[in-house]
Amino acid sequence: MGSSNRIHNHAKHIHSHSHHDHAHDHHGHHHVDPNGNKKGLVIALFITVGIMVLEFFGGLATNSLALLSDSGHMLSDSSSLLLSVAAVWFATRPASPNKTYGFYRFEILAALLNGVTLFIVAGFIIWEAIGRFSQPPTVASGPMMLIASIGLLANVLSAWSLMRKGDVKNNINLRSAYLHILGDALGSVGAIVAGLIMMIFGWYIADPIISILVSLLILKGAWGVIQHATHILMEGTPVTVNSSEVKEALASIDGVIDVHDLHIWTITSGLDSLSCHLLIEDNQDNQAILQQAIQFISNQFQIQHTTIQIETRAIQHEEMKV
């Protein structure tokens, strides 16, 4: 296709190739220490498994659907936490020739699966609760509240360990696990409230009602995780970035005529990428424009992984289909 330069800005190394100007800026993968994420998840996993066993047998002994539903959440959480631990481990594996981004996307797949399992567990609980409306069984409310209180303390401890050691705000995998734990905490609170109502008023229908309310709250959080994970897997623009603003910023650079084939996507939590073509005037310094574009994207939009192709009117290439 002729002759030009490709600029690969990778760990401050610049390599010259031939024809189009490219900038690859790969420094600055803003990940929280994966060991911290893993440690927080492992602590939460052990706590969750222990409380799951306690609430399951406690629910059978007290005949409480609220406790059994909470143990069901715990079972789902244990699986999700185990999956999240595996995802963190996979993400540390190096890239290979046939997986050039490594295994970072496994974290997104884990988050999606966790969101789906939350939906399934909540659905089963709602179905069982509806069946109990006509003849709510008698529940041993005192022991039920005691077990639920222990579960609540354990959930708070698990959530605290994830918040302290991991990145629950920016890492969707950890956030999905964190939501599972918060769902369990809600379930424990619901069981305590239901136990109080049954103890004071003898309204055993409170048990299935509280179970449904807690399940609906869990479904809301799960839907958010599923939407976010699906958006990433569909190569959607990161929610923190406005693609129109990015295009305007690049077009405002002196000498740039047009910005096209602009794509912004997320590889995994905290690692966004951008690629685009810049059509410039023939008499412009393409390297100066390239450097300015890299800095614009990094400073204004916090995207450090960029691939920018510089073109003049003499360049002819097929338009991308998307």
Task: Tell me what the structure shows.
- With 322 residues, the protein is α+β, with helices and mostly antiparallel strands.
- The protein starts with 23 loop residues before the first strand and ends in an 11-residue tail after the last strand.
- It has helices at residues 34-62, 65-91, 106-132, 141-165, 172-201, 206-233, 243-251, 286-301; strands at 24-25, 256-268, 271-280, 305-311.
- The chain has a 4-stranded mixed sheet, with helices on one face.
- The model is unreliable at 1-32 (pLDDT under 50).
- It folds into 2 domains: 24-29 and 237-311, Alpha-Beta Plaits; 34-233, Up-down Bundle (Alpha-lytic protease prodomain-like), CATH 1.20.1510.10.
- It is elongated.
- The chain contains 8 helices and 4 strands.
What distance lies between the first and last C-alpha atoms, to the nearest angstrom? 23 Å
- Can you count the helices? 8
What is the CATH T-level topology of the largest domain? Alpha-lytic protease prodomain-like
Look at the structure and give the CATH class of the largest domain.
Mainly Alpha
- Going by CATH, what is the homologous superfamily of the largest domain? Cation efflux protein transmembrane domain
Percentage of residues in strands: 5-15%
Share of residues in helices: 55-70%
Widest β-sheet, arrangement of strands: 1-4-3-2
Sheet bearing the most strands, described?
4 strands, mixed
**What Rg is obtained from the alpha carbons, in whole angstroms?**
26 Å
CATH architecture of the largest domain: Up-down Bundle
